[in-house]
Write a structure and sequence with these properties.
- Strand 8 and strand 9 form a beta hairpin.
- Strands 5-2-1-3-4-9-8-7-6-10 form a 10-stranded mixed beta sheet, with helices on both faces.
- It is about 40% helix and about 20% strand.
- It has 2 domains: about 160 residues, Glutaredoxin (3-Layer(aba) Sandwich); about 120 residues, Glutathione S-transferase Yfyf (Class Pi), Chain A, domain 2 (Up-down Bundle), CATH 1.20.1050.10.
- About 40% of the residues are buried.
- The protein starts with a strand and ends with a strand.
- By secondary structure, it is of the alpha/beta class.
- The longest helix has 25 residues.
- Bound molecules: glutathione (GSH).
Length: about 300
């Protein structure tokens, strides 16, 4: 099996989710550092224009969005499971909670409270984070702190039982979803110690989560990752349900885009479609054929 290659940057909270997945699985993986802002030519050559962080590459298979990436890693290396008590649907459903209700106030505070964020990152995110009004960022910070604490309090409540983790005896994907905005806030937000002070169970659990680690990481550069994509052939396996609600057929030219922020359109031919996964085939000049995969949840796919 080809190695997991994660395209990411170390400060990325969404990438921290996947680094923790590798930690739970004690998996070997290769790290490619990508720029924090556009342009990202080596990344978009693989994805066809998708720019978000992180992206997982396995040979000539490219996986976009943490919902898709986590499930692919789970499918390829099922033990130990990301769903230790088997509550997979519930854990995956929580993605939308932590990616939005929990992440967004943390992102506002990371941008608005932290004087160390480089000016070019702020400029890039003004175009990108459509959920934030940068012209009113300073006034929005008290509301962001209050909303963030409301979510931390839910975690404090969820940790009230005897179990050390949200989903039982071992850390799982539910913990990763609850933890990544905590990790982001602790890393970037000067008022974090005050915001977390009332929540002892969350602080103790976060300390346990910080011990999960990142598995067995080695660093490679983008040129090596592109060479892997060039040398490998993408899988031809795929199925498009004949009676899918969208009326799409296999081999048809389609456009895929996220339904929230960063809605860059990615073009290709449809290889696979079901209610959890969209996969397209792309031909990239200089690299050859690639399969690019997205979760169905949070994405739109339509005839080109
Ligand atoms: N829904 C995406 C969101 C990813 C996301 O927003 N990542 C941030 C970084 S933590 C990002 O892409 N920022 C802009 C960039 O890296 O160019 C996922 O789950 O992977």
């Amino acid at each position: 099996m080809s190695t997991f290659i994660l395209h990411h940057f170390d400060a990325s909270p969404f990438a921290e989710k996947i680094r923790l997945v590798f930690g739970i699985k004690a998996a070997p993986w290769q790290s490619v550092q990508i720029p924090m802002i556009m342009p990202k030519p080596n990344l978009t050559a693989l994805t066809g224009g998708y720019r978000k962080t992180p992206v997982l590459q396995i040979g000539a298979e490219i996986y976009c969005d943490t919902l898709c990436i986590a499930q692919e890693i789970e499918a390829r290396q099922p033990v130990p499971s990301l769903f230790p008590t088997g509550r997979r649907g519930l854990a995956l459903a929580l993605s939308r909670w932590s990616d939005k209700a929990f992440f967004e106030p943390g992102a506002a505070l990371s941008m608005g409270e932290n004087p160390q964020v480089p000016g070019e990152v702020i400029e890039d995110r003004k175009q990108f984070f459509n959920f934030m009004d940068f012209s009113k960022l300073a006034e929005s910070l008290p509301q962001a702190r209050w909303q963030l604490q409301a979510q931390i309090e839910l975690l404090e409540d969820a940790l009230a039982g005897d179990d050390p983790y949200l989903d039982g005896e071992r850390p799982g994907y539910t913990d990763i979803l609850g933890y990544f905005p905590v990790w982001m806030t602790n890393a970037n937000v000067p008022s974090a110690p005050r915001l977390f002070e009332p929540y002892a169970r969350v602080r103790e659990w976060a300390a346990r989560m910080s011990e999960v680690g990142h598995g067995d990481r080695s660093d490679i550069d983008a040129a090596e990752a592109l060479a892997v994509a060039r040398e490998c052939d993408p899988s031809d396996e795929g199925k498009v349900d004949a009676d899918n609600e969208l009326g799409l057929t296999q081999g048809e030219s389609v456009i895929v885009c996220a339904d929230d922020y960063g809605q860059d359109a990615i073009a290709g031919t449809l290889l696979h479609l079901d209610t959890q996964r969209i996969s397209i085939r792309r031909e990239e000049g200089g690299i050859g054929p690639l399969n690019v995969h997205f979760p169905a949840i949070g994405f739109r796919v339509a005839a080109a």
